[in-house]
Design goal:
With 46 residues, the chain is mainly α. The protein has a domain at 17-46. Helices cover 59% and strands 0% of the residues. The chain is built from 1 helix and no strands. The chain has one helix at residues 19-45. The protein is elongated and about 75 Å long. The N and C termini lie far apart (72 Å). The relative contact order is 0.08.
Length: 46
């Protein structure tokens, strides 16, 4: 009888984003929200 055991260790590190990346992400989020509001307003007009 043979017992084979295989162990895997995974380490995750949280990536800290730069100020420019944070500003870009915030701008993208605002544009996404504006687009969503525009779509809702057009939907209510129909």
């Amino acid at each position: 009888m043979t017992l084979n055991i295989f162990f895997i260790s995974i380490t995750l590190k949280k990536h800290k984003e730069s100020f420019q990346q944070a500003a870009r992400n915030e701008m993208i989020e605002k544009l996404y929200e504006q687009n969503k509001e525009r779509q809702l307003s057009l939907y209510h007009l129909l």
